[in-house]
Amino acid sequence: xxxxxxxxxxxxxxxxxxxxxxxxxxxxxxxxxxxxxxxxxxxxxxxxxxxxxxxxxxxxxxxxxxxxxxxxxxxxxxxxxxxxxxxxxxxxxxxxxxxxxxxxxxxxxxxxxxxxxxxxxx
Length: 122
Known about the structure:
This protein is an alpha+beta fold. It has helices spanning 20-25, 40-45, 54-65, 73-85; strands spanning 4-14, 27-36, 92-98, 112-118.
C-alpha cells in the first residue's frame, strides 16, 4: 500500500511513566501516526466518508494519551495503534510516541518508541 495519511506532532498531556513524579506531575507526549490505506475512492469522489477523518482520529488519540496511565510508552503506543486499526480501511498503522521530558539525568533531544502493525497482527 503506497497511500498514507500522516499526523505528526500531536501533543497532549499524560501521566504515564514508572516514577511517582511522572504520575503526579504529568508531562507532554508527542505522537506521530502513519496510516496506510487505499485513498483512491476518497480522492476520486472528493468524499470524506471514504477516508479516515484525521480530526476525529486526533481526538480519539488524545483521549488515550490523557486517559488511564501506563508505565511504559510501549504500552501507550500499543493502545494508540488499536485506535488507528479500529477503522477497517486501515491496513497498517505506525505510531511513534515521543517522550521529550523523560526523566533521564543527561542532556538528550528525545526518547521515542515506534510500533508498526498490520491488521493481521492485531
